[in-house]
Amino acid sequence: MRPVQIVIDAQDTQRLAGFWAGALADRGYRLPTPPDGAPDWPSWLRAQGVPEEEWGAGFALDNDDETQPRVFLQRVPEAKTAKNRVHLDLQAGGGQRVPLAEQEQRVAAAVERLTALGATHVESRTELGTHWAVLRDPEGNEFCA
């Protein structure tokens, strides 16, 4: 059992799982492989008798480090309409212990990587010696890098 599970609402769980697996790859997260040697998820789900309309109802990312939180994407019918009340902070800059110029370089590199994965850069900020960027994932969920 993981210490914490982070749940992200999504309309397309598989697409968003691919984004977050890439965004969190440097922390050991990855897309899960189908069990029982199945060649792909549709084959495995079909063999389990799961109706196609239920495929993608939920999608968890794998991480071998059991001290890391589980990341679970759950399908919801509605699109995102308001600002997140909770968000992920990837802490790409390293915080105040890192010189500001280096924080800016780290954050810029993270923004470049994340936008290549499908994120949208909203803004970059520096306050109290810490530099970060605000982004949105492909479904509009805000997060920081």
TrEMBL record:
Domain of life the protein comes from: Bacteria
Family matches, as InterPro entries: Glyas_Bleomycin-R_OHBP_Dase (IPR029068), Glyoxalase_6 (IPR041581)
Species of origin: Modestobacter versicolor
Domain spans labelled Glyoxalase-like: 5-144
Protein name, per record: Glyoxalase-like domain-containing protein
Gene3D superfamilies: 2,3-Dihydroxybiphenyl 1,2-Dioxygenase, domain 1 (3.10.180.10)
Signal peptide coordinates: none
